[in-house]
Task: structure prediction
Amino acid sequence: MLERGEVANSWRRERWDSLRLLTPNWQSRLPGLRYDGLEPDGYMTMSEVTEFIERFAKVSGAPVRTGVNVTSVRQSGDRYHLTTSRGEIAARTVVIASGACNQPAVPALRDAVPPAVEQLTPFGYRHPAQLPDGGVLVVGASATGVQLAAELRQSGRPVTLSVGEHVRLPRTYRGRDVLWWMAEAGVWDQRYDELEDLTRARRLPSPQLVGTPERATLNLNVLTSMGVELVGRWAAIRDGRALFSGGLRNMFSLADLKMVRLLDTFDEWALQAGRDAEVGPPERFERTRVPDSTRLQLDLGSGEIRAVVWATGFRPDYRWLDVPVVDAKGQLRHDGGAVDSAGLYALGLPVLRRRKSTFICGIEDDAREVIDHLTRYLATRRGHH
Ligand SMILES: Cc1cc2nc3c(=O)[nH]c(=O)nc-3n(C[C@H](O)[C@H](O)[C@H](O)COP(=O)(O)OP(=O)(O)OC[C@H]3O[C@@H](n4cnc5c(N)ncnc54)[C@H](O)[C@@H]3O)c2cc1C
Result:
């Protein structure tokens, strides 16, 4: 196992200070290691996640070699040849577990932002004091965007949030964590080969959720009440002005509708599974409030906006992979983790084999099946020699 940094590198280096997991502690489990602390319903801070993963490295006895950067993987014959910062390695099989979120995905608009406006991504952002005083435009209203918008607003800054397609979820539903429902009702176990639209499922933004000791819901209504101004999707920059799409009303009703449909399936499941008495009564939530008027443009040269925070998602980095298995969008071509090149495998990508694939609790089932495939592959190869 080669790791360019330290164990739990992404949690140490690529997250902001206040971040906590959005998955509850009881859901933090890896093969042979479960959360055994006092707050199963709490959410881990970054140092707690790092400790948890370090503990797993010890418990599992995984042969981790840290400080080894893989700079190239090439195929020749029935082998892969790896070039690393510590020398060459040949292997019959390679499992790519390099992560799905190695870099922030920032739209090309960034190049047209006037130089007087500071730009940050979640990889560079640590805490509000880092930003210049004054207004902040946060772009993207998924988990990262809503969390950073709330934190920046609480620091006293005027915050504008540019909202595109998003997934709204309550933190708790009928007294249970919404992720308890997703797990129990079988949503997270839905398999990649049974989904109606796998491409869409793989592209779905993260839900508007935050992990706080209060188990608070963080949605657009909460942000509006805090004084965050909502604008539409950032479509273009013209003459130094940011232009936003209209149609917030439609976007909000779509997200509300999808949430209600999901809650309906939870209610139905509880009834059918005989679990109805175990949970509180069904709840319905206030619709997302549409501002009376929304601005369609913002002059980036006026000094109103001093910084832009791009919370527009993350993407993997395969610049080190010299096997032609990456598509035009920068994603690996694979079928449930079996990459389009014999002997090459992947783990930890969105909906790799199940909806839960990119979450900590999702790796166990996926790894078992991918490794089964890998051992069968090696067995047939052995038959050839
Ligand atoms: C902001 C954010 C919040 C998240 N919150 C949650 C959450 O609340 N709950 C949850 O379950 N999941 C969460 N996730 C998803 C989380 O990323 C996964 O659960 C998990 O960390 C993925 O682990 P991984 O090992 O697949 O990838 P990573 O954690 O990205 O690890 C990949 C490792 O590969 C190393 N690496 C990459 N390229 C190379 C190379 N060329 N050579 C050597 N080493 C290399 C990296 O240094 C890194 O340590 C979150 C993700 C993000 C980005």
